[in-house]
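Figure-free illustration: sequence to structure, shown twice.
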Amino acid sequence: MVDVSAKPLSKRTAVACGKIRLQRETLNLIARDQIAKGDVFATARIAGIQAAKQTAQLIPLCHTLPLGQVKIDIVAANDNAEVKCTAQTVAQTGVEMEALVGVTVALLTIYDMCKAVDKGMQIYGVDLLEKTKDAVAVSLCATQSSRAKPSQRDVAHKATATAKRSR
């Protein structure tokens, strides 16, 4: 794993998308909630969110990240469903793997739930659309500093100064 411990915390967001080609009749069955395994898109959303949260267990060298948000959007069109996953964290490394895992598992869930009625499904176009990083102010030390003992204030002040220098 890459050492990111010296990097400052940043608000990080990543958006990934992918598509699954489905027969028109399969999309109609999904819309009418007539797939035997249940509500396809609701299940795919939950599966994608769960998968994003498990990324570090699935990809060996990924860091475990505290995810602040994972959102899965699914839009059905003429002959496909498009899945978009947005993942967000405040961490020292990016969240793009979580977004890619989320979108991929959501697509695989749609595939699994519809395979009995649609033998021609194809997953395609899985891609990272964007990733952003914004600086985060270190305010926890300053807030707790006023209630801290003198020795704790020194440690908090040094941590804040180090964080400001590293930006």
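We now fold a second protein in the same way, so the two outputs can be compared directly.
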Amino acid sequence: MTETVSDAGPPQGAKAPSGGSAAHAVASVGVGLVLDAEALYRELLRGVQQLLNATPARLVGVTSGGAWLAARLQKDLGLAGEPGVISSAMHRDDFAQRGLAAGGQTTLPFDVNGAEIILLDDVLYTGRTIRAVLNELFDYGRPASVRLAVLVDRGGRELPVQADFAAARVALPASQSLALARDDAGAFSFHVEGGL
């Protein structure tokens, strides 16, 4: 069984990823885009380790792709305790249209007040989900800082939101979405969905 989450998404074409060794993780194939999600995860692991070395922090994943990443990073980095999971559902600006999604409720197993937090998501697009998540986070307290790390930054920002670390930067037409999937063994894969 494979679980999938997607983030719809306005620039065209593919760009090289930002930073480090994940440059090989993005390749253009004809008009399609191939993303090696496991290679991108390894780059994210490296980036989050650097963020943690700068300031010890708590991991919080945005449901559901970011929560999958946070859980795996917590284990791979040997961090004690459980990562936080945060939902954007209650603060979305399109709540009236989308309603409350099933599952994926906020669980923060630590005191948010004064905490250094690394917020994790699979795809950063318009910035609206991150805005909603920050509102949700501040409902629980006032963190000392919040840094954002993502697998893919696909551009198309509508709000002034920027990732502190992105394993790759790509551009997709607005008609396409990028879906992160996780198989039974916990391995990640990406699928590009929609038309050109």
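Summary for the second example: Strands lie at 3-8, 26-29, 32-35, 58-62, 84-86, 116-124, 145-153, 165-169, 176-182, 188-194.
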